[in-house]
Amino acid sequence: MSCTVGFISLGCAKNQIDCEQMMFLLVQAGYKLAPAPEEADLVVINTCGFIDAAKSEAIDNILRAAQWKAEGSVRKILVTGCLAQRYQDEILTELPEVDGILGTGSYYDIVSAAEQVMHDEAVERFGSIDAPVRECNRVVTTPRHYAYMKIAEGCDNRCAFCVIPSLRGRYRSRKMEDCVAEAEALAAAGVRELIVVAQDTSRYGVDLYGKPMLHELLRRFCRVEGLHWIRVHYTYPDELTDELIDVIAEEPKIVKYLDIPIQHVNDGILRAMHRRGSKAFLEQELLPKLRGRIPGLVIRTSLITGLPGEGEAEFDELCDFLRRHRLERVGVFPFSPEEGTPAARMDYPDAEIAERRAGFVAELQSEIIDEYNERFFDRELEVLVDDWDGEYYIGRTYADSPGIDGQVRFTSEQEHRPGDFVQVVILGAEDGEFIGREAD
User: Fold this and answer.
1) Residue 302 CB burial class (10 angstroms; 0-12, 13-18, ≥19)
2) What would the pLDDT profile of 110-146 be if each residue is shown by its tens digit?
3) By three-state DSSP, how is residue 335 classified?
4) Nearest Cα to 348, choosing from 273, 277, 279?
5) 245-274 pLDDT, tens per residue?
6) Which among 103, 164, 173, 169 is positioned nearest to 133, based on CA atoms?
């Protein structure tokens, strides 16, 4: 069919990869990608449905597309992803402007679904969310010099506050040779930074090989010619094996940056949330081991305030932990009681308290970041160039993952392109981000 299609991808990088695969399948089938979604015959909205804020964002985008449809610039709307999976009945009944929905187990049906909706046929497809991961090419939508790599789908952790297992299914690793082949193709296309993601990267390989194999996969990635940085996200604290720690410490291509979601540190809250491990494990075992064996390590974590069981004492305990351990990167979110999860049936502080506590943690973390940044003043750091704003080059250090961490603005007498690595002298910081100049 001669038809243009526009995509709106919401949520995490894992969602973005799903969107990129759907784009590839449609292009292969003869569809053309529209420069902007409002200029397309068909708009595909790939949604997140993890927490209330994500649901609101998805609905806002659906309503915006509905307005384009009413104005005649868009003909059809197809909703895919987690929100579609979670609210299968409600979307079509409460949002009649939507012409079809695909669940998270039906991404690969995108071509036939597009054909049906463009022929005025209703589409509701919800394939198995536990099916093996299928290999599929992508239309990479990140800048040419970095890309995400999803090494597994689904999650087996069953945290009490999280709906992901019911939306994405059990944990399924991709075969190692398929991951390596994709990394080689990305590097050949110009990717310099590979960002490894999954719901839980540290569990990689347990289902296929009988044991965690992320360490071996990373070693193979390090042998891929052209890759300069390899960054790892979403490693669970109790699954950071000695083999994995050794690889991160030893391999120069692996940036000394780990994303370890701990959510909270109070033992009672952790037990209620079905989180493995304890505060003692974090403080006495994991953090000393990581800091001792990986010099210069930057730790990113995510925290939730207002969880069931969190009173003022438990919140003070969390803040005291942050003050003492000075984690370099912290994302904080107020608790969102998600229907269908055990946590939603527990007693928890009201939303205003959760929001206030999240704001307090953000202010505390801002002070920690300022202190961390000061260590680098008048020092040289390797910076990956992302952009040029007409006055400064914009880049990132190893401590900064795109879209979630800070940036470096620096001047240079030389001409650089996105993807170049430049030695930069850090002169100072503004609003938590570095200012510098290229080293002589």
Assistant:
1) middle
2) 999 999 999 999 999 999 999 999 999 999 999 999 9
3) coil
4) 273
5) 999 999 999 999 999 999 999 999 999 999
6) 173
